[in-house]
Amino acid sequence: TGGGGDDGLTIGALQPLSGNFAPWGSVHQAGLEFAVDEVNDEGFLDQELTVESTDTESDAGGAATAFRRFVEEEDAVAITGPVSSDVGVRTAQLAEELEVPLMLHMAGTHRLHTKQSRHTFRLGSLPAPMDLQPQAELIEERDYQTVGAIVADYEWGRTVEDQIDEWFPDGIDLSVDVAPRGESNFRSYLRDMPEDLDLIVATGHPPGSISIHTQARELGLGHDLTTGAGLPPGVLYEALGGAAETFAHLHTPDVYGDAFADVAGRFAEDRGEQFTTHHGYGYIAGRVFAEAIDEADSTDPSDIASVVLESSHDTILAEPLQYNEWGEIDGVRSMLSTVHEGGPDFHSDGAFHLEQEYQSSLMNASMVEPLVPEER
Amino acid sequence: MSRHPIAALRHRLGRFDDIALGVVVLAIVPQLVVGTGMTYQARLLTIALTFAIFTLGLNVVFGHTDQLFLFVGALAGVGAYTTALLADAVGVSPWLVLPVGALLAGAIGMLVSYVSARRGMTVIVIAILTLSLQLAIMELFGGARDLTRGSTGFLFSGLEVTFLTETLGFSRYVAHYYVLLAVLAVLLVGYRLAMTSKYGLAFKAIRQDEVAAESVGIDVVKYKTIAGFAAAAIIGLAGPLYAHGEGWIEPSMFSFNTVDVIVLIMLVVGGMRTTWGPVVGAGAIVYLEEQLHVLGQWRMTALGLLLMVLFLYFRSGIVPKVTAALDGDGRSVSLTDVTDRFG
Amino acid sequence: MEVVTLAEIAVDAIARGLLFALLGAGITLVFGLGDVLNLSLGAFAIVAAVIGATVVSTVPVPIAALAALAGVAALGLAIDRVLLSPVYRTDGEERILLGIFVTLGLAIAIDGVLFAEFSLRYAFPLDVASRTIGGVTVLGSTMVVIVVASIALAGLFLFLRRTTLGKATRTVFQDETGALLCGINPRRLRSLIFVLSVVMAGTAGLLWSIQAPVGAGSAFDLTIYGIIVSIVGGVRNIEGTAVAGVGLGLLMTYANYFIGAYQAMIVLFGFVVVVLIARPEEIA
Amino acid sequence: MSDPLVSANGIDVAYGDLQVLWDVSVEITDEDRVVALVGPNGAGKTTLLKALSGLRPLAGGSIELFGADAAALRPDQIVERGFVHVPEARNLFTEMTVEENLEMGAYTKRAEQAATMAEVFELFPVLDERRTQRAGTLSGGEQQMLAIGRGLMAKPDVLALDELSVGLAPQFVDRVFEKVAAISEDITVLLTEQHVHEALELADRGYVLENGRIVAEDDADALLESDRVQDAYLSG
Amino acid sequence: MLEVSGVTKSFGGLVAVDDVSFSIGDAEIVGLIGPNGAGKTTLFNTITGVDPPSDGSVTFDGASIAGRKPNKICRRGVVRTFQIVRTFDESTVLENVRTGAVFGSSRDRSTDEATEHAREAIEFVGLGAEAETPASELTMAQRKHVELARALACDPELLLLDEIGSGLTPTEIEELTDTIERIRDERGISVFWIEHVVDAIMGTTDRLLVLNEGSLIAEGEPAAIREDERVLEAYLGGAV
Ligand SMILES: Nc1ncnc2c1ncn2[C@@H]1O[C@H](COP(=O)(O)OP(=O)(O)OP(=O)(O)O)[C@@H](O)[C@H]1O
Ligand SMILES: Nc1ncnc2c1ncn2[C@@H]1O[C@H](COP(=O)(O)OP(=O)(O)OP(=O)(O)O)[C@@H](O)[C@H]1O
Ligand SMILES: [Mg+2]
Ligand SMILES: [Mg+2]
């Protein structure tokens, strides 16, 4: 490692390489590096693109310091990687202060953007309304009558709780429980759920969603599906085994489309590993930044941010990636998929593949209220 | 033994010469290490000063009276949340309500000290008591979502001094550094005054043998309570400054791991019961932590190992070691701790 | 809510409470008998769970469990020898503080390794059928937890109360020179106690991971639960620890249930504060 | 020829940089019954006993106990060999009961515990009365008795008593001296005492320690008559 | 000056001090003797506030001090030393004594005055040469003198000494008794003194109190006490 800047362009990656979110960090990092390698091979940028990454340990303060270091000491022109809303909020703050584009990996809170934001771009984790709408649609489509939800007692979980009220169809038998964020034993909550449960919504308790699913099965609740947070599919496969087939997680990369298969095929060939949705987020970040630098014809971070904000990029998502005026993701489709044994078509050596349970309708940024900062 | 008044004044002022020198050195630092428009080093410097103030508070209560406060983070949080929320509610500048936050934190510290001194709690009981309070208060910060916006937190600023930013043209972070330095300087002088007065003498006696201290007329409960109040108020005062430096308030900034662990390390590494220990310790640890980032995901492991080594083999602290080395050379000891010489 | 559900929840809460009690015993042993508040206790619980969950894919369940416990015992012994020896060479207040600081560093270091290398959550799979007794369904995993934890606690209790070796452990805490002059080797007893305490924690970690996956992020929480239980039970007192564990398990589970999650935590810590203020002399 | 039970050969002991014992040699044989160690405050009596019982390391010289080299043994190993030291500071287990303290004294001689405890209670009936009281709440003198009792519980061959009568009321001093005389039928006793006169009357041999050096060694009667002792300790 | 009336102290079922009454006048040296466990230290503790009496009253110069905190009682002029020495071991002798001079006295002194006062007390007990030595490096006898100097620096009117002579050689005891007599003669301070060293206490005190199983069994001049049947039986035994 060492300073970039003089003879190359640096993308800073604030990765959770250790700690609770480490499974996200390493996968995202691999996808990002792959994208940068491809960009350099294609040679459409004047300068070599490099990735500088650091371990945030999932800590907001640490990420903030690293952000400044990247920008001021390593001359990074763009930043990506943050996982978790707390880190997302703090780094978004800095992106605006230092005027450097930031592409978030997984930060779902809707209090991320203000109407003045111009440098913060959401990618992997959608804001709560966009998280709940696909599930609401699924309930209607499958005509689920009895739905239970467990949300975590912190910002995200409570937002999900509100959004459930807002989006879920009236007239279903719905029970919502709130559990501590660190809880991993949900038996008492689950025992209290109604009989004949069709669906358990666990997206409001990301750290506990796997436990909720296994414990519900152990208790023999006999529900159809559990919907859970956007965990890397490899983690789901490892942790759940066969139970992963009834655990539907949310993602936006269109793993069933040709573009994804293309990239994944190249990745498998080059790296010998299976390319998943979360590799995808890293890949998209690398690609979009490179294209924006090219398009802006400038290495000024602010110019790069303007391009990301204003243009639209064809990526491995179902729809082109585009943002509204303040950087909220716009016109996106998300999918609910389960994980099954056996590699996908594009990588038959893989251990698992995804199967789609549901694909949402097109969702626009207008459904998310931005944060209105107070007057002082 | 009467002294000439001017000589006496000299003598009094002479007790502060190391503080004056130290503050001047600290005042030059940003000019040397912070490039124009840079915020990275400036932020590290403000963090170091903020934590130096926290550590100074812990030094008073733990170093001098053996009350191990493991809720430094919570006290800082109380100061910060009180100041921010009150300023917001009343619609005034945070400067105006800053003392309220400090006093509230001070009152909590005072209460804890009073109760624990009355109940004759040992250091370990106080440690567990305050750790429990730390965790409970953290739950409150995170849980009272309507008031505090939960774990996400909110933007906070307003503790700037326009003279520094506008008239002198310092950047936001550098200006904040000087605000912190001014606070630190006042606290160092106060600390020196207190420790060379009868407070220092009482603390020293109490720490060694409470029963004996009481038997020679020292009101143990009173002095412990005073120490608890002073420390907590100092920490509660630094809390909002910390939040201002970060531009943000959220519970995890005040957690046991983020604040207490680090402050404790700083105190031990710098040197307990010394004037400069907290400052040196804070500087050393902030620097070290920043250097450790090259270790990537092994940073935390390295930090843990380093801590154990420091605690086991270096627990007398940097300042006492350096002082002893200088004393050994027979050279002057301008940075030495005056309390050790006078009482 | 139905009575049956309430009863089922009570059984779950008791199982959880017994795990708290094991952790509490781990704290009580080393603090009550050795003056060191082991802030790294929770890390040992997680290490046991990680070892168990990792080796169970290759060996039968009982062997994996034993391997996990042997693993933490060995780690405990090594740490006792290398890190705690210098701590025990100090005395009085200095030892208490050094104990806190060193085990804090240790907790950070072990957590660091877990964070970097074993950052997932780990579960120890155990297939035991559920049973319905009088309409109350008791999960297989819950039964295992209750049985194993009770046996471990009872064994510990008998050791400390009934054997001279157990009693001798108390002398070491109170007056080391006195113990030496009675022909007792304090160093060996301390090692024994430390290993015993981390094995208790390891057992708790393993049992915990039968019920719910655990990861490095839970280590400090487990330590805190241990400390709380140990305090509420009266630090010198293993029966008290067991009772306090179960009591707090019930309190927490129901408080969670009826008044909400964060209020429950505040109730819990508030309870500790009250206990500490009401009877500090029992603690140190 | 008598067999040496304890022999210190030219030992030096220091606390940090401060040397307190200089080339001290002491020998106790199985023919001795009571050996007294006298000397002014700070002479190093306690330090010598600590060196013998393994509580202080040697800076020079050697120690043999019961014919074997003991310089490298830990205190607990020395107790096992049969040399038991009742320390000046008592070092009782203050949170444990009187009975438990005695029980722990018998740690190395568990088989004989009950019988020895009965003997100790006979010697000090007040301990029997306070059986279940916490040792820390005993009066100063009671604690002293418990300390001696606990030492006896280990059934030592040599019992070293530091400041035997400190804090004891006069009638107890006499009683305790009588008991020591009785004990010394079976056990060799090494004691330090401020009641120099009484100690030398009780002892058959004595050493005088001053400033960390042995300055006199003789039969107790001879020491008692010697000018050195007369002037230094018995002027009052 | 000190009036103790009906003082009782019990621990659970054990009555350690049982309905004890006596008084101490100006410039008097009063001895307190009694078998081990008689309740002597406990009686001191009730007077000095370390362990308030369960019953009875203690007045000093006419004002009640029973149940007050030790620091208050000290500043009133009743100061003690401890059976098991409690010096501030990390501090020098001067600091130890200065602590008494600053806090123990009802008089307000400047820092310099307090230091002077402390030095005087140190000289008085004959420790002048050790003023700058940390207490931890002193012998037991010296540390007892540090406690004595520290107590003197508190400007006591009444000094309570708990076995200050134990563990001292006869020569040292002689020096100590001298000092104690000087404390009374030169400073007019009353001394209330527990000691098992019978000769010393008999030779120095004006009056003796004898405690047995918590109760006062005799009171009077040393010569009379020596003859007292009950005292002979309970305490002196065949020693005299
Ligand atoms: N822990 C220690 N550190 C430093 N010096 C010590 C220590 N213990 C004792 N000394 C010194 O060693 C010397 C001998 O002390 P020791 O206690 O052996 O004497 P002693 O003959 O037993 O005296 P006493 O009659 O007062 O008990 C003294 O000068 C004392 O100050
Ligand atoms: N806290 C306590 N709890 C129970 N009993 C106690 C307590 N403190 C003292 N005692 C008992 O009270 C009695 C009197 O003790 P005290 O220390 O006053 O005796 P003393 O006269 O000073 O004896 P000595 O001459 O041996 O020092 C003793 O029997 C002692 O065991
Ligand atoms: Mg001695
Ligand atoms: Mg006494």
Automatic annotation (TrEMBL), chain B:
Domain of life: Archaea
Protein location: Cell membrane
Keywords assigned by UniProt, alphabetized: Cell membrane, Membrane, Transmembrane, Transmembrane helix
Keyword Ribonucleoprotein: no
Gene Ontology CC entries for this record: plasma membrane
Recorded topology in the membrane: Multi-pass membrane protein
Name of the protein in question: Branched-chain amino acid ABC transporter permease
Transmembrane regions: 20-38, 44-61, 68-87, 93-115, 122-141, 175-194, 225-243, 263-288, 300-318
Main localisation: membrane
Keyword Signal: no
TrEMBL record, chain C:
GO biological process per UniProt: amino acid transport
Annotated family: Belongs to the binding-protein-dependent transport system permease family. LivHM subfamily.
Compartments reported by the entry: Cell membrane
GO cellular component, one term: plasma membrane
Species the sequence originates in: Halovivax cerinus
Location (main, coarse): membrane
Membrane-protein topology: Multi-pass membrane protein
TM ranges: 13-32, 39-57, 63-84, 96-116, 136-160, 192-210, 257-278
InterPro entries on file: ABC_transp_permease (IPR001851), BCAA_transport_permease (IPR052157)
This protein's name: Branched-chain amino acid ABC transporter permease
Pfam family, one: BPD_transp_2
UniProt keyword annotation of Transmembrane present: yes
Record's keyword terms, sorted: Amino-acid transport, Cell membrane, Membrane, Transmembrane, Transmembrane helix, Transport
Source organism superkingdom: Archaea
Automatic annotation (TrEMBL), chain D:
SMART domains attached to this UniProt entry: AAA (SM00382)
CDD domains linked: ABC_TM1139_LivF_branched
Chain ranges of the ABC transporter domain: 6-236
Protein's UniProt keywords contain Metal-binding: no
Pfam families linked: ABC_tran
Protein family (similarity comment): Belongs to the ABC transporter superfamily.
Designated name of the protein: ABC transporter ATP-binding protein
GO biological process: amino acid transport
Keywords: Amino-acid transport, ATP-binding, Nucleotide-binding, Transport
InterPro entries according to UniProt: AAA+_ATPase, ABC_transporter-like_ATP-bd, ABC_transporter-like_CS, BCAA_Transport_ATP-bd_LivF, P-loop_NTPase
GO molecular function annotation: ATP binding
SUPFAM superfamilies: P-loop containing nucleoside triphosphate hydrolases (SSF52540)
TrEMBL record, chain E:
The protein's name: ABC transporter ATP-binding protein
UniProt source species: Halovivax cerinus
Transmembrane region(s): none
ABC transporter domain ranges (all copies): 2-238
Alphabetical list of Pfam families matching this protein: ABC_tran, BCA_ABC_TP_C
Entry keyword annotation includes Transport: yes
Record has ATP-binding as a keyword: yes
PANTHER family: AMINO ACID ABC TRANSPORTER ATP-BINDING PROTEIN, CONSERVED COMPONENT OF ABC TRANSPORTER FOR NATURAL AMINO ACIDS-RELATED
Annotated Gene3D superfamilies: P-loop containing nucleotide triphosphate hydrolases (3.40.50.300)
GO molecular function, one term: ATP binding
Keywords: ATP-binding, Nucleotide-binding, Transport
Lineage of the species this protein comes from: Archaea, Methanobacteriati, Methanobacteriota, Stenosarchaea group, Halobacteria
